[in-house]
Amino acid sequence: MTLALVFLIFGLLGAVMVSMNALLGPKKTNPVKEQPFECGSPPLQKGIPGFVIKFPLVVFLFVLFDIEVAFLFPWALIFREMKGPAFLILLAYAAVLAAGFVYAWRKGAFRWD
Amino acid sequence: MSETLVLLIKIVVVLAWFLVLALLLTWVERKQSAVMQDRIGANRARIFGLRMFGLFQPFADAIKMIFKEDFVPPFADKVLHTLAPFVSFFFVAVAVTTIPFGPTVRIGGTAIDLQVYDGSAGLLFLLAMLSLGVYGILLSGWSSRNRWGLIGGMRGAAQLISYEVGLGLSLVGLIMVYPSLRLSEIVAHQGALFLGFLPRWGVFLQPLGFLVFFITAIAETKRVPFDLPEGESEIIGFYAEYGGLKWGLFMLTDFMEIIVVAALATTLFFGGWQMPWLGPDGLNWPWGGHWKMASWVVVCLQIVSFQVKVAFFCWLQILIRWTYPRIRYDQLMDLGWKLLVPLGLLNILGTGLIMSLK
Amino acid sequence: MNGFAALAPLLFLVGGAILVLLLGTRRNGGTNSVQAAVSIAAIAAAGFSAARLWGRAVRAFGGQLRFDEAALFMTFLFLLAAAMAVLLGMRYLVRHAMPRGEYYGLLLLAACGLVIMTATINLLIVFLGLEVFSVSAYALSGLNRRDDRSAEAAAKYFLIGSFASAFVIFGLALLFGTRGSLDVHQLALPETGGSSALALTGLALVVSGLAFKIALVPFHMYQPDVYEGAPTPVAAFFAAAPKAAGFLVLLRILVPHFQTGIRNEAIIEFLSAVAVATMILGNFAALRQRNLKRILAYSSIAHAGYMLIAVISGDPAGLLFYLANYLFMGVGAFAAVIALGGPGREILDLDEFAGVGRRYPWIGGIFTVLLLSMAGFPPTGGFLAKFYVFSTAVRAGHLGLAIVGVLTSLVSVYYYLRIVRIMFMKEPERELDVDTENPAVYLVLFLCLYAVLQLGLFPGNIITLIRQATASL
After folding, report:
1. Rounded distance between C-alpha atoms, residue C295 and residue C292, angstroms
2. What's residue C192's pLDDT?
3. Which residues sit opposite B290 in a β-bridge?
4. Most buried residue, A65, B60, B296, C442, by most Cβ within 10 Å?
5. Tens of pLDDT, residues C199-253
6. How confident is the prediction for chain C on average, in pLDDT?
7. Chains B and A touch (3+ CB pairs under 8 A)
8. In this model, does residue C194 exceed pLDDT 60?
9. Rounded to the nearest 5°, which phi and psi values hold at A56?
10. Is B236 in Cβ contact with A80 (below 8 Å)?
11. How confident is the model at residue A25 (pLDDT cuts 50, 70, 90)?
């Protein structure tokens, strides 16, 4: 209920702000304006050529580590109640995490050039 | 019905607070940079000859942006191009609703939380909303069909998801100390004292966690020194093909992120609306002595204390933004992955060790 | 701490895998034998800790992890297969310049996933193990990154495998929705409400997903391509181990279901049709192949058909005996392929094998025995295995299935013996460049030869073990 109302009001506000220019602004265009922004020089090629993205590895790392972080949250919540074994579990978990981290590092996943 | 009304009022008040503060921050940013660079800064906007140190400048900017042309490049993906600024704005705006602004107050017999949405997993909700902001960047870069925009968007995505890991890790230690994901409870936990005089604030219990949190959070706002996605001064960023209020929304999102980060730092690590030694019936000095206060005074003090802390952290971020140069891409990723992630893990381990020894 | 005793085999495997992976990141190349030794040590430790659980009916983690004797028997099979794959890989990885730490590590993780699959009666845990195995398996089959066919195998395996996983998880959702539990004994309860159609659909989906992993017709298409493209030691591991795990899970689901469940006739008819199709298609498709790895792949499909007969006729002992046999025949056959390979290149085309039997009589001889065992000639284990399966099928009233099995076995004799004929009878066209410095592979070959003969001539010990294992099902 609360969230629905929040989403509705904030969504409406966002929609109004996004569409405000279309309602209130002028509409004039010219050929230069319709070119892609290239710091003032005319573009040499049309469209976007295929280019190498170096981020899949980052994405994989993110998925791995973020899921592991997500697992840590419920564990952290009941840490006080579990006392002793909780820390042992953390040690085992962190060991696996650290092993993965060291593996990724030494395999060169964190080389960015 | 009255509940809905109260809720509506709360949402509108928070929204107004949020937007006005964001606008004010643009002024603070310009003035702060002017002070640091020995300039005067924005001071031209005036109403009836009244300049007010340029305080009208943000409003003038806003009006100017509203009446700009809605220009979508003919080669762009129209729908996504419009969706991107909306997504960017929307999720950050929603995130702020989880922040508790003050204690529960009683007005005419009804208890009102000074917080819009107090979910049992409020912290997770907040993190989720913040991380959804990355879609705004990626979509804007992608839909612009501009290679600089696309590269900027990709760079931004890589940066944001890299720092999200550190952000998540830095908060796990905090959850261990205050075992709750409900932000109001986390704040309530911070009201107690330890060692007789220090408030049990997160920053004292989790100093390393705070450090990692603050650095990663600043990186999540993608401002200098972490402004590689946009790089307004030299490199072209993800919103190269935006103008008018759509561009303004990205800009606004930046400042809103500053506020959310400041509010989050305050709530999680600096006691939220708690003021040191201030109980519900007045000040209890750690060296003994008691100042009795009416409960409405206490509430006002607490709300003011929250605002002061938030203002301080906003200012601190602006200070950082004008102090440090931008770091390089490899330095950025190295900092995120090779320093902050291990530090975050170490913080969890250390917290666990100390807590199990006790 | 009972739970951790039960966890020990898995812990050793995972620990070994992590250690090997980290060792594999070191720059100097001389650590191959160290990594192999660590892997073997981890497998041995896992096997030892598993052996200590025999006869103790271990249940841990609220019964989710359940090392009964059947699971332990399977665990030994997986560990043997993994150990042999490690030995097979040692030289092969160097010859083909493949990453080593990843090979050993993923192999151990795959074995770990298979152990998880078998050591539980909760289908959700089965799915967990299936995924642990599958993810490792996708990576393993694409490990030879300079080879396009390896990449193709990995892509195919990944796509079809995820498809199968989706089948299983959807089936599990339906089963859980209708029965309120994923315990195999709960699934077999006779249905009282009107949702039996949904439950049967769920069961069918789960069984289909497993059929993908076992490679039963019509879910077999990926298998020959994966076997052909994957590195040969990996194919050796795939030949037996995942099939064994899939069949045990199938047994665990179907054995209680045949006792108390509903619509058993329909299920049996469906499975019989699948078995017949698998036997016929596997054997006849193998006739047309010229590539040795593809022949072995189709033959493994055919063997899955024979094993399915054992499932249908409710004969767990026969199935386990067949699986144990097939483990050694399958791994041994691939070991022979590796043993006959040259540096940097494998010999796979049938014609190139002309005369190798006479030039390398030991390898050729052992290969021949293994092929004969696959075809079902006495006195090898393959004969006994087929004999048990077919005779129980006849006794259980599945005469037709037994007849199809025998006839297709006769067909298979042709293509097995054709390999033998080419190896021994044909004159070589040119000299083969065979890398003979390969002691680990010879060890595996002799082990398989010994096992096949032992199982064929003196199967008493192993049958005692299998009796204990099936009693625990």
Report:
1. 5
2. 57
3. B284
4. A65
5. 888 888 999 999 998 889 888 889 999 999 999 999 999 988 999 999 999 998 8
6. 88
7. yes
8. no
9. -55, -40
10. no
11. confident
Segment C353-358 mean pLDDT: 84
CB contact under 8 A, C21 and A103: yes
Residue B173 near residue B348, CB atoms below 8 Å: yes
Which of C408, C413, C414 shows the shortest CA–CA distance to C281? C408
**Cα angle for residues C268, C129, C316 (degrees, 5° grid):** 35
- Residue C118 makes CB contacts below 8 A (sequence gap 6+) with C70, C71, C74, C75, C78, C129, C245, C248, C249
* Nearest residue to B260 (alpha-carbon basis) of B218, B211, B228, B305: B218
CA distances from C331 to C236, C240, C302, C370, C374 (A): 5, 7, 16, 10, 12
Q: Which residues contact C266 (CB under 8 A, 6 or more apart)?
A: none
Q: Cα(C259)–Cα(C276) distance, rounded to whole angstroms?
A: 24
Q: How do C58-60 and C65-67 pair as beta strands?
A: antiparallel
Query: What is the sign, positive or negative, of the torsion defined by CA atoms of C187, C193, C195, C196?
Result: positive
Closest CA of chain A from B165, distance in Å: 5
User: Residue A112: inside a domain, yes or no?
Assistant: no
CATH number, domain with residue A63: 1.20.58.1610
| Residue A65 maps to a domain | yes
Largest Cα separation within chain A, whole Å, is 71
Please tell me the total count of domains within chain A. Answer: 1
* Distance of alpha carbon B231 from the chain centroid: 20
- B109: part of which helix (H) or strand (E)? none
User: Chain A partners of B241 at a C-beta cutoff of 8 Å?
Assistant: 36-37
Q: Chain A residues with CB inside 8 Å of B92's CB?
A: none
| Contacts with B18 (C-beta within 8 Å, 6 or more apart), sequence order | B93, B96, B256, B259
| Closest in B75, B85, B124 to A73, CB measured | B124
Residue pairs spanning A and B at CB distance below 8 A: 178
Query: Tokens 């290969």 appear where?
Result: C367
Chains that touch A (3 or more CB pairs under 8 A): B, C
pLDDT of residue C2: 63
CB atoms within 10 A of CB B322: 14
pLDDT in tens, B309-342: 999 999 999 999 999 988 888 888 889 888 999 9
Chain A residue numbers touching B65 (CB-CB < 8 A): 21
**Residue A111 included in any domain:** no
Range of the domain at A55: 2-106
